[in-house]
Design a protein that fits this description.
The structure holds two protein chains of two kinds. Chain A is of the alpha/beta class. Chain A has nine helices and seven strands. Chain A has a single domain (about 10-230), classed as Rossmann fold (3-Layer(aba) Sandwich). A six-stranded mixed sheet of chain A has the order 2-3-1-4-5-6, sandwiched between helices. In chain A, strand 4 (about 85-90), helix 4 (about 95-110) and strand 5 form a beta-alpha-beta unit. Chain A starts with a helix and ends with a helix. Chain B has 14 helices and 18 strands. Chain B is globular and about 75 Å long. Chain B starts with 7 loop residues before the first strand and ends with a helix. The chains are: A alpha/beta, B alpha+beta.
Chain lengths: ~240, ~500
């Protein structure tokens, strides 16, 4: 739909998920849905969702681990060509950020050098900061410390700790609630904005520059004929 | 780590090689409880792909006592201080144990399409085929017009060649011509029936990718392979008849197939193997107890693993994976208008092309050259995969073959890296005398798919009738645009 009306260039971006309950964040983003105790997505090869920016449209191709991270059995193909990654931790679990740091290190080892990584602390709804319109940054942390009903706060990882780690590693940083939808769209918009124009390939639509078609596309063999590829690009947009 | 032993598994699959990964793919929509383990820390088993550092570790393991169908691995790295001839960092490389080409008519491709996993793979063309002659590297004629134009073939041989090409694509209907010679060598058949001179016998035999000399490559084995080669050209575009998946060939298929297994609910554990198993008939339904290498004991209805015993006298192959300091652009140059840029090129060294002090080359050598487009090496370099039948001198012969080849191509590339190893057949094959084990075939052998299908039937049992092998609907589309999926919530 967007392709036929808007002249904006549209590109596919592979985004890989890592960490705790990352699927629930994506379900909120893609379907505006939330399920308690969401298991790793079974039956979904990947989910797609578009993100409209002022100058272009990013079509996220969101890859779930399909549970393969549980026994450390993610294959190199999972990280291959990923332009972005979402590393989620549970801000109510003390050990959760440690695991997230492990995934960040794994991404730095296995993924392409230019990958955009967003570190996301989820379950903001279990803290007493949910009313804050901007739970990010020093303000949020300060409020928590001064908050009167600190008893109801299940937070175990402070914003400051995670944020300073994210800054050290050059990661985008957000705190979200998949349950309430807080900050979820913002995460994906920030990722979309952070992806450098030059790394976008397979640009589609009328505004797409020819330069985006790199030599690798000259060697690609289509097993299903050009018709299939065209219909795949044409629909669902 | 979560516990694996609380579940009664429908099937435990041990090993993530190509065959077992394809089985996992075939079972990925069956709703069976599947535990898929691999004793290695990586996917792919005998079809894995490695970074340079992973190769180091692999070489150590192969040469240790651990049972595997690989042996005598050795590694050589350049020590040059020349900047342009240096190896890049370890992960800039994906060297594969599984560089076999896949003919466009292989059922593997149609099954990867019908099972929808092809969307996660990128296929590239196997473009030019070359034959290393005494003085030069010659491109194999690509079709009839090429043959007519080829000045190196005299008219008598041209007529014979045309006659043979016409015959071979229709060989199934001309049994009377070749059946009496079925068990004879291809060389003699081409000479007596088509008056082809030895150099053209070599060309024809090269198309079979036979590891035996043309004299001992059987006619009945050759004809279907030559026909496959010729009829595969043009299926997915002009100028090529085979493809290779980017990022390490069979290794990539194995990873994609295992991911499909995981998406279907299968549990994946690397670094755990099967130590032993015993089946008790006392329990209902023949439950097998599988002892895993992490001391867990899991229960399953089916256990699929590779046969433990391997025959030692079966045909083995010698292989070299080499990295060279040139992009070898002329090898991959388009020879047919409108064809995709070739990422893989096949170079054939017929019998007696190279000689080492101790012995002459009694069987052909094949070099699959992979450009950096395959994602296996950085720009400005190439990966060469050389194969020949194992013999006492095969290691030296492969070395000599690489030297001769590199001396014939442009800008005299340097060797940067060389991994030598030997590979034994996967299966104990009683009828080993004539054909090559599918796991050693230089082209993907569809016999592997027959094995996968029969294993699939074993696991699925009575349901096999209804379910269709490797035919699935697309899974993706669970996006906001698809309303019908939202209704489920």
């Amino acid at each position: 739909m967007a392709d036929s009306t808007a002249p904006k260039p549209s590109s596919s971006v592979k985004l890989v998920l890592l960490g705790e309950a990352a699927s629930s964040l994506v379900l909120r983003f893609v379907n505006n849905d939330f399920q308690e105790n969401k298991e790793p997505t079974i039956g979904a090869a990947f989910l797609t969702q578009k993100c409209n920016l002022p100058t272009r449209t990013i079509k996220f191709e969101i890859w779930d681990t399909a549970g393969q991270e549980r026994f450390a059995s993610l294959a190199p193909m999972y990280y291959r060509n990923a332009q972005s990654a979402l590393v989620v931790y549970d801000l109510t679990k003390p050990t959760s950020l440690i695991k997230a740091k492990h995934w960040v290190a794994e991404l730095q080892r296995q993924a392409s050098p230019g990958i955009v990584i967003a570190l996301v602390g989820n379950k903001l709804d279990l803290t007493n900061e949910t009313s804050s319109s901007n739970p990010l940054g020093e303000d949020g942390d300060g409020e928590a410390a001064e908050g009167e009903d600190a008893d109801g706060d299940a937070r175990k990882i402070s914003t400051a700790e995670a944020k300073s780690y994210a800054e050290e590693e050059g990661l985008l940083f957000f705190e979200t609630s998949a349950k309430l939808g807080t900050n979820v769209t913002e995460v994906f918009t920030a990722i979309a904005n952070a992806i450098p124009e030059t790394s976008l390939k397979g640009a589609r639509g009328p505004g797409a520059s020819q330069a985006a078609a790199r030599t690798e596309d000259q060697s690609r063999v289509n097993l299903t004929g050009p018709r299939d590829a065209a219909s795949k690009e044409g629909c669902a947009c | 780590m979560e516990s694996l032993n609380e579940t009664l598994w429908d099937v435990v699959i041990s090993g993530t090689g190509l065959k077992h990964s394809l089985l996992a793919l075939a079972l990925s929509r069956s709703n069976k409880k599947i535990l898929h383990v691999d004793q290695n820390e990586y996917y792919g088993d005998a079809e894995a792909a490695f970074s340079l550092q992973e190769v180091d570790e692999w070489v150590e393991r192969v040469n240790a006592v651990s049972p595997s169908n690989f042996r005598n691995a050795s590694l050589w790295k350049t020590t040059t201080s020349n900047e342009s001839d240096k190896l890049s960092f370890s992960r800039a490389y994906t060297l594969t144990l599984s560089p076999q080409i896949i003919y466009t008519r292989s059922k593997l491709l149609s099954q990867l399409v019908s099972s929808k996993v092809y969307r996660q793979l990128e296929f590239q063309a196997v473009g030019n085929w070359w034959i290393l002659g005494e003085h030069s590297l010659n491109r194999l004629p690509n079709g009839r017009e090429d043959i007519f134009r080829d000045k190196s073939i005299d008219n008598r041989a041209k007529r014979g060649l045309m006659k043979f090409l016409k015959f071979v694509v229709d060989y199934e209907n001309q049994n009377e011509l070749w059946q009496p010679q079925a068990d004879s060598g291809l060389a003699g058949f081409l000479s007596s029936h088509f008056q082809l001179p030895p150099n053209l016998q070599n060309v024809i035999c090269a198309l079979t990718l036979s590891l035996d000399a043309p004299e001992s490559t059987k006619v009945s084995w050759s004809l279907p392979r030559i026909a496959r080669h010729l009829t595969s050209i043009g299926v997915f575009g002009p100028g090529f008849g085979a493809v290779v998946p980017k990022w390490g060939g069979g290794a990539e298929i194995s990873q994609v197939a295992c991911r499909a297994g995981a998406v279907g609910g299968g549990i994946y554990v690397l670094g755990i193997g099967v130590k032993e198993s015993n089946t008790s008939s006392e329990e209902a339904g023949n439950i097998t107890h599988v002892h895993l290498s992490n001391e867990d004991v899991v229960k399953t209805r089916h256990l699929i693993q590779y046969p433990a015993a391997r025959s030692t006298d079966a045909k083995a192959v010698s292989k070299v994976i080499a990295i060279v300091s040139s992009s070898l652009t002329t090898l991959f140059k388009n020879s047919v208008e409108g064809s995709p840029l070739a990422a893989v090129s096949v170079i054939v060294l017929p019998v007696s092309t190279v000689i080492v002090e101790e012995a002459s080359q009694a069987t052909p050598i094949y070099i699959m050259a992979h450009s950096n487009e395959t994602g296996e090496c950085p720009a400005g370099q190439c990966v060469l995969y050389a194969t020949m039948l194992y013999s006492e001198h095969s290691k030296q012969l492969l070395d000599a073959a690489l030297d001769v080849f590199l001396a014939r191509v442009e800008d005299t590339p340097e060797l940067l890296y060389k991994l030598y190893y030997e590979q034994e057949p996967e299966e104990e094959n009683e009828a080993q005398t004539e054909s090559l084990d599918p796991s050693l075939d230089l082209a993907f052998n569809d016999a592997i798919l027959e094995d996968v299908e029969s294993l699939w039937k074993t696991v699925i049992g009575d349901e096999a009738e209804q379910a269709r092998f490797m035919r699935f609907e697309d899974r993706e589309g669970m996006s906001a645009d698809d309303d019908e999926l939202d209704e489920g919530y």
